[in-house]
């Protein structure tokens, strides 16, 4: 009787396996795992816990949930952000689990499953706020932002449209070598404010209570997505389907709330919808 009971239990476990594994391309099912590229230096999306050196963040939690939904093992491949696109193109990874802005120029080679809204967020320190409440309050002041990101030209374009066109002095946009340099310029008084991704500003505020002030809403809106090679459309669609189910069952919002990013949630998953 005990042997029969165990056999029934094993059979039940088999039939309880995620039904959506069949959504995966046959080649991936034969491979038996998904190779996921990840750049783990951008909190709160993906980063290393300084105490344990374990991967943390929104992307890590979402991709882990996708793996469970599809019933497949994940194998993470850590790399620099600049290596993600080449890794996808050369089939070193099956897709990028890092946040990557869905831009038309990138869609020449890639296809995106868009899962979160982001944008260029102005922020400053409590000491340097000086009454600023809205982005227009920074007309005539200086703002530091990484010159290699979209935030640099977006800040310049926003200034022309909302400051100069309104007869106000332009924002002086200071290009920096990266997010850390922009924050340093702000905190050391070389800039009146800074612009970084909305999600990173949330993280900075969480880590430094009472230090930073968010100024209004982001001055741009973009979609971030998980990137796939164009020929991986079946895998892309399987991941999109899994994410859609995670929205429906509440897991998606639970993960975003855990990291303080519920304001950046999407109501529906989209494909290649970035502008």
From TrEMBL:
From the Swiss-Prot or TrEMBL record, give the protein name: ABC transporter substrate-binding protein
- Return the SUPFAM superfamilies for the record: Periplasmic binding protein-like II (SSF53850)
One Pfam family recorded for the sequence: SBP_bac_3
Could you confirm whether the keyword Ribosomal protein appears in this record?
Answer: no
Q: Which InterPro entries match?
A: Solute-binding_3/MltF_N
Q: Which UniProt keywords apply?
A: Signal
**Organism whose genome encodes this protein:** Pseudoroseomonas ludipueritiae
* Keyword rRNA processing part of the UniProt annotation: no
Instruction: Give start-end of the signal peptide.
Output: 1-21
Provide the Solute-binding protein family 3/N-terminal domain boundaries. 33-263
